[in-house]
Design brief:
This protein has one domain. The chain has 121 residues and is an all-alpha fold. It has six helices and no strands. Helices cover 85% and strands 0% of the residues. It is globular.
């Protein structure tokens, strides 16, 4: 729900600061919130950080799509949309298996730290 509500906010923000800045300025705090949730000392703080992440994490989706569509020709748009969407879908299909193995191997929330780090990089 928070991600869906963030789309109109992303559109307004991108008009003010630009598409790329909107992606960066929302993506990095989102990833930091995810990494901090792994080490939060209380459940309330961890859940709060995860809610912040949910509100910010998808703001890069409409801005990335707009940015990609603005730099390719109209004929290239379907291919560009597929090229940027399919790897994300494949990664989201495989990642629960890896995350489950990491959670089973350690009591620490390594998947959150690794995911946040990779998203920032």
């Amino acid at each position: 729900m928070l991600a869906a509500l963030s789309y109109p906010v992303a559109a307004r923000l991108s008009r003010r600061v630009g598409l790329v800045n909107t992606m960066v300025f929302t993506h990095i705090p989102s990833s930091v919130a995810l990494m901090l949730a792994a080490v939060a000392p209380s459940l309330a703080l961890a859940l709060s950080l995860l809610l912040v992440r949910a509100a910010l994490s998808q703001m890069d989706v409409p801005t990335r799509s707009s940015c990609v569509m603005s730099v390719v020709t109209e004929a290239e748009r379907p291919a560009a949309a597929s090229f940027t969407s399919v790897p994300r879908s494949l990664a989201s299909a495989v990642s629960p298996t890896i995350a489950g193995a990491l959670f089973a191997a350690s009591a620490f929330a390594w998947p959150l730290v690794i995911c946040g780090t990779l998203k920032i990089v």
